[in-house]
Amino acid sequence: MMKHIITDIQERLSTEIPELKYIAQDWGQLDLYGDFPPLKFPAALIDITGATFSNAGRGVQEGQLTVSVTIADLSNLISRNASQVMQDRAYRIFDIMQKVQKALHHWNGTDDYAPLVRDAMNRTVREDGARMRTLIYSTTWWDA
Hints:
This protein has helices at residues 3-16, 84-90, 92-104; strands at 22-25, 43-57, 60-74, 117-124, 130-143. The radius of gyration is 17 Å and the shape is elongated. It is of the alpha+beta class. The mean pLDDT is 90. A 5-stranded mixed sheet has the order 1-2-3-5-4. Helices cover 24% and strands 39% of the residues.
C-alpha cells in the first residue's frame, strides 16, 4: 500500500534527522491553523501528491509516484550583522533540506517501490513567518 511509503519516510527521517521536532503526513497542518499550528518546528510533512499508472501484466500495475517532503521552520529575518547563532538559526532550513536529501535520495524502505530520486524543489512564501521548502521526489511502485 502507498501508505507505507509515507510511514517508511517518516521513520527514515526520524532516525536520520533528530533535530526535526515533527514528522507526519501532510494533511494541511501549515494551511489550516490560526495562531497555533498543530505542529512543532522544524517540521517535515510528507505526502504522495500525484501518480500515474500503467499495466505491467498479470494484474500488476506500475505507478510513477510523486512524493513531497515539505520542510517548515520558523525564523526571523536576520541581517548579516546578527550574531552567528542567530544566522545559523535563520539558515537552519537549508541544513535540514540537505540532510533530508542525503537521507532519501536513492533510498527505499522496502522492495515494492524503487529508490526515491529528487526531481525538484519549491519555495512557498508565507505571511506568518514560517519558511517552507518542498523537496519533490519520484519513485516507481508496483501494486498487485
